[in-house]
C-alpha cells in the first residue's frame, strides 16, 4: 500500500510564502500525474495544480502566477511553492498521485492558514 505524506503547511501572514511537499512511501510506477487539491470549510475540494508525466502543468486561475508545482521523480515527491498568499488560500491541502492505470492515491491533508 502506498502512502503519501505531506508536510509544510502552517500559519502564515497575507503576502507570505509556504512550500508544501508530498512524498510517496515507495516508488509508484507508471505515474500519470501528481497534483495538489484544497478544501476550504463549507466548500468542495478543488484542483489547485497538477503536473503530468511529460512535464506539462496546469493551475487553477486563482493561483496562477503565485503558485508553482514541481516534482522530483527520483524521490517520488511533488512540491507546491505558494507565494503571495491570500486569506482565501486558507484550506486543507491534499496531495494526489494518479497512475496510468487509473489507480490514485491521496495524502492525509495539511492545513494552510493565511491570517494576520
Describe it for me?
It is a single chain. It is built from no helices and 11 strands. The model has no long low-confidence stretch (mean pLDDT 95). The strands form 2 sheets. Strands 2, 4, 5, 6, 9, 10 and 11 form a 7-stranded mixed β-sheet that branches. A 4-stranded antiparallel β-sheet has the order 1-3-8-7, with no helix packed on it. It has 116 residues and is mainly beta. The protein is globular.
Tell me the β content: over 45%
> What pattern of helices and strands is seen along the backbone?
EEEEEEEEEEE
Shape category: globular
Which structural category fits the helices and strands? mainly beta
DSSP summary, beta strand count: 11
* Rounded Rg: 14 Å
Give the averaged pLDDT, no decimals. Answer: 95
Helix percentage: under 10%
Distance between termini? 40 Å
How many strands, which pairing sense, and closed or not: the largest β-sheet? 7 strands, mixed
Low-confidence stretches: none
Brief sketch in words of this structure:
By secondary structure, the chain is an all-beta fold. Helix content is 0%, strand content 53%. The strands form two sheets. Strands 2, 4, 5, 6, 9, 10 and 11 form a seven-stranded mixed beta sheet that branches. A four-stranded antiparallel beta sheet has the order 1-3-8-7, with no helix packed on it.
Amino acid at each position: 500500500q502506498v502512502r503519501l505524506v505531506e508536510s509544510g503547511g502552517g500559519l502564515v501572514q497575507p503576502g507570505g510564502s509556504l512550500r508544501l511537499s508530498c512524498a510517496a512511501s515507495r516508488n509508484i510506477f507508471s505515474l500519470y500525474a501528481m497534483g495538489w487539491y484544497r478544501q476550504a470549510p463549507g466548500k468542495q475540494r478543488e484542483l489547485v495544480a497538477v503536473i503530468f508525466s511529460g512535464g506539462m502543468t496546469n493551475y487553477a486561475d486563482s493561483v496562477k502566477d503565485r503558485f508553482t508545482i514541481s516534482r522530483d521523480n527520483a524521490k517520488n515527491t511533488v512540491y507546491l511553492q505558494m507565494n503571495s498568499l491570500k486569506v482565501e488560500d486558507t484550506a486543507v491541502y491534499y496531495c494526489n498521485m494518479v497512475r496510468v492505470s487509473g489507480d490514485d492515491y491521496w495524502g492525509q491533508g495539511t492545513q494552510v492558514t493565511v491570517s494576520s
